[in-house]
Amino acid sequence: MSETLRRSVVFMGTPQFAVPVLLSLFKVSDVVGVFSQPPALTGRGKQLARSAIHQCADSLKIDVFMPENFKDSNQIEILKRFNPDIIVVAAYGLILPKEVLSIPKLGCINVHASLLPKWRGASPIQQSIITGDKITGVTLMKMSVGLDAGDIAMQESVSVPPIITAGMLSEILSHLGAAMMEKFMQSPKKYLEKTYPQDPSLATYAKKLTKLDGKICWNDRAENIFNKIRGLNPWPCAWVYIGDKYVKLLESEVIEASSNSNILPGTIIDKDFSVKCKDSIIQIKTLCPSGGKAMSGKAFLNGHKYLALSVI
Q: What is the pTM of this model?
């Protein structure tokens, strides 16, 4: 087949991160089917909502399939009937068994939001920020049975500014991944012929995050807390309990000031919501009380003046 022809693609993805990739593929290939996670409960009202990819595929008039897994032989048969040249995966949320990986003529390509082998796994964007990485990027990888362990077809890097949140970085990397995928689809065989293996000794893992991972321990370095707050924004969010009130921490700033070692970590030391940490001070710029709207830390304290100099 000539490399200039449009190739048939089955796309698998779920969140907003994957939407630019699908739109890019739609321009340069024939997307014959889309697989996504089933509708999930979202928002305060806990209403069932279709995934971002499901909504995008509907707008493009592409059939959407939502298997809970690939143990059902009917799902395998659906894929075989599509007879795709390539399966492209971006933040899908299901592990593909060997039987699925063997279906497309040119294999399965994963759009992964890290510079593999660093941050294999479910939360590479968040972990990159939480650990203070200065550089990250996107990898196009030919999928294998191992977790994000396949050969690399293409990589591009970006810097990680110190003020960026996981939400901001996700948007940057999703558009980078889309541009890379469009380039790849112009000549897939060329890139697949030049794939190279990952060094497993350099592999690190980004586990699936839960809300419990957002709990803040003030007896930590201010820089670590700062990175955690931005790395978990917008989900699952860093949080603390202030009295009996659950409060999400959305934005902060490390204050370069001398820190009195006699003050306990977690002490709110001024009306601007500056909090003593292990080594220095962090100021909570924006927060969101449970059931409320986002507000400045200072505004929150104005309504809770009794918290001054208290330990949270």
A: 0.94
Q: Per residue in 8-40, is it b (16+ CB within 10 Å) or e — as a string?
A: bbbbbbbbbbbbbbbebbbebbebbbbbbbeee
DSSP code of residue 144: -
Counting beta carbons within 10 angstroms of the beta carbon of residue 238, is it exposed (0 to 12), middle (13 to 18) or buried (19 or more)?
buried
Residues 6 or more apart in contact with residue 273 via CB below 8 angstroms: 283, 284, 287, 296, 297, 298, 300, 301
Strand partners, 108: 87
Distance CA 134, CA 161 (A): 7
Strands of the chain, DSSP E: 8-13, 30-35, 40-42, 47-49, 64-65, 86-90, 108-112, 120-121, 135-142, 151-159, 205-206, 238-242, 245-255, 274-276, 281-289, 295-296
Give me 211's structure tokens: 């809300």
3-class DSSP assignment, residue 73: helix
* Integer CA distances (angstroms), 190 to 88, 117, 122, 142, 196, in order: 17, 22, 29, 13, 13
- Which residues 6+ apart lie within 8 Å of 194 measured at CB? 153
Between CA 140 and CA 137 the distance in angstroms is: 10
Distance separating alpha carbons of residues 289 and 81, to the nearest angstrom: 51
What is the dihedral sign for C-alpha 178, 109, 158, 236?
positive
State pLDDT tens for residues 16-67. 999 999 999 999 999 999 999 999 888 766 789 999 999 999 999 999 999 9
How does pLDDT run across 265-310, given as a tens digit for each residue? 999 999 999 999 999 999 999 999 999 999 999 999 998 887 776 7
End-to-end CA distance of the chain: 65
All structural domains of the chain = 8-206 (3.40.50.170), 211-307 (3.10.25.10)
Q: What is the DSSP letter of 22?
A: H
DSSP for residue 207 = P
